[in-house]
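If you are new to this repository, start here. Below is one unmodified record pulled from the training split, so you can see the exact layout before writing a loader.
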Amino acid sequence: MSMKLARAAALCTLAALFTREPARAQVNLGEQKPEASLPFTLTTVATFKLPWRMAFLPDGRMLITEKVGPVWLVTQKGEKIEVANTPAVYYQGQSGMHAVYLSPNYATDHSIYLTYAEPGEYGGGLALARAKLNATATTASLENLEVLWHQMPKGKGGQEGAAIAFSPDNKYLFLAVGDRQRMTPAQDPNQPVGKILRLTLDGKPAPDNPDHGKAGAATIDLIDPPRDTEAAKSAKVVSSYTFPKSNTTPAETWASGVRTPYGLAFSPAGELWEVEHGPAGGDELNLIERGKNYGWPLVSYGNNYNGVPIPKPDTRPDLAKPAIYWVPVIAPGNLMFYRGKKTFPQWDGNGFVSGLATQSLTRIVFDGHGNAKAAERWAVGHRVRDVEEAPDGSLWILEDSNPGALIHVTPK
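And here is the target side for that same chain:
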């Protein structure tokens, strides 16, 4: 190589070093201490049987799901109407009725989306359904319910994930699918577990996904799922299942290698963020990006439940690392971004992560460039499954318990 070419190559290399995206720091917030006092008041309005998720209607009423099956239409005074024609659910352990979301076109189509464990011959499987909500002052029902996507094969094991986030342009939905405690399939492109899927609003693979157009394998073994790596070595194959082709295509997958993705939300900057449970330690907050692999079960900041270590994320630079992790865990229930300008204007654009194990709310500040840092952790004395913003800017909390409280959060 000539001296001139060598100098040009060196300059290109130097330029690449300076223009390469900087490495994002991983921050452990497990030891974060709660604040000495609360800047808000907590008022219990109603109670439910294992409430899971809520979605606010434009009139201020809310839809609330119970894991045991029902969906309720609830006023801010706590008055309840049971929603008729909801689908049957497989309720066991972590499985059951999960989340409810308003269609991004709700103003015109009055549709809602439900995620839940759909019953099957060998347990249940995550399902995504859409229906029209017919709600009056005294009645509520679902009409024309259609299952848009369902997980195959069904089976035992919880951790279905079941969170949805609609893209900022309202054209697509992202569906978080947990690993169902099956572990290694989270790395198998032919199995719809341990993945973030990107679908059209009708539940079809989005056209420009990383593996758009690819078809998957036809048959897999159905394993009675163990909880840790050592047990997986002796897992017993109980049957085999042949997928319908619509359930084997990798074309639905946007990202892989997630464990228990209970929270999924777009930030005001348009970034997609996810929170998930680790095993024994290692809860994560991840920036979800196209085609990336988030490492489960190959790496984790936690360990297997039986104490067997898992390689740490620093050992695999090819895998995406979380922006924040928690050791010890908080057991996140949900993630949401606050958009209020009135009730809590100082928090506009901030994220909130609910904590089950720590009975807490954690406020997180995002810079819009893939970085996140913690602000306060508030101990609220309840296992917080969900936190959402009402049309008036106040916050509402669902307690993971039976009975579990619906709590109104207002400024002091």
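Two things worth knowing about this chain: Helices lie at 3-19, 106-109, 229-232. Residues 3-19 form the longest helix (17 residues).
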